[in-house]
């Protein structure tokens, strides 16, 4: 990871206008792979917590390494920024801004990217990635819009009661593919809404989803509820879907 060739990244910033979001727009940061060419077509990864995903998750550098080293074909990564004061209300399924956010994501963000970048438009060529509540909203985007997304990379998903209730109401999830990671040191993590055992939350969600036929690669190993742990898991998660 210290090799300079991995650090020469192309990241473009965009602003998506929105009629759903109260701010009227949302900032994006878009990673374009080495050798990017508009006459080609690329798989696309849509990431929550865009600023943190790029800065603390080092997602663009990790993507560069995987592509340059020939471990993955080139892909485009779209990081969607969030106002952290509004994060829970947008990402949690019982949040007051959740419906507006997922409508923005599916009806405004997706067409915005597909009109401007040569991304593949088949569902199997799209991937959602998110950490904690970002993993939660990624799953709910797939549940709400299964025609658009069926692949989710969840890093320590915050699968609280509301999420489990929604998932339990699904009859058939055989179309859903999930890479679900949680760190074993996440048993008493304090959030803005309380202290939670993320291992138990993820075990419970795994049971719910797998019981309904979802295809899940479930990972438990040493790790804390922080980017230092999630960063280590991103390459394996991307390779699981994009290889």
UniProtKB/TrEMBL annotation:
Gene3D superfamilies to which the protein is assigned, alphabetical: alpha/beta hydrolase
Record-linked InterPro entries: AB_hydrolase_fold, Esterase-like, Mycobacterial_A85_antigen
Protein name: Enterochelin esterase
Organism, as annotated: Paenibacillus herberti
